[in-house]
Design goal:
This protein is α+β, with helices and mostly antiparallel strands. The protein has one domain. 41% of the residues lie in helices and 17% in strands. Strands 1-2-3 form a three-stranded antiparallel beta sheet, with helices on one face. The chain is rod-shaped, with a radius of gyration of 25 Å.
């Protein structure tokens, strides 16, 4: 009798299914890790804005601004004003928001900074000097 060398169709199908499952798991995990990294980037940006408002702007002016951007608060890296998808603070599509409160003539006494996260609840920083 001759012996045949090679794989059967069933063996090839089993290997293909197994490889497909591994690829699916890899891409799901990669998507989760990417989302977690974007969330960390958002937290870093909100913290930078918060400390720039508190340690820079408020100490200099003794009030908070009615809106924030890189002209009002030039103390931080300009790249932090855009969320991971490129929308700036104040844009309707941005995951960042700045909400001033108790304002008189563009001089505000408090604010809320917020970042909508993908894998966690919203990250919120409130003004320190109320």
């Amino acid at each position: 009798m001759k012996s045949k060398k090679g794989f059967t169709v069933l063996e090839i199908i089993i290997v293909a299914v197994f490889a497909s499952l591994l690829l699916i798991l890899f891409f799901i995990q990669k998507a989760n890790l990417d989302a977690m990294q974007r969330d960390e980037d958002r937290k870093t940006a909100i913290n930078a804005m918060y400390y720039a408002l508190e340690e820079g702007y408020y100490k200099e002016h003794k009030y908070y601004p009615e809106e924030i951007n890189e002209e009002v608060i030039p103390y931080i890296d300009p790249a932090l004003w855009s969320d991971p998808f490129g929308a700036n603070v104040g844009d309707s599509a941005s995951s960042y928001s700045y909400t001033p409160a108790n304002c008189e003539k563009s001089h505000c006494k408090e604010y809320v900074l917020k970042a909508e996260l993908e894998k966690e609840d919203a990250y919120i920083k409130n003004s320190r000097n109320q």
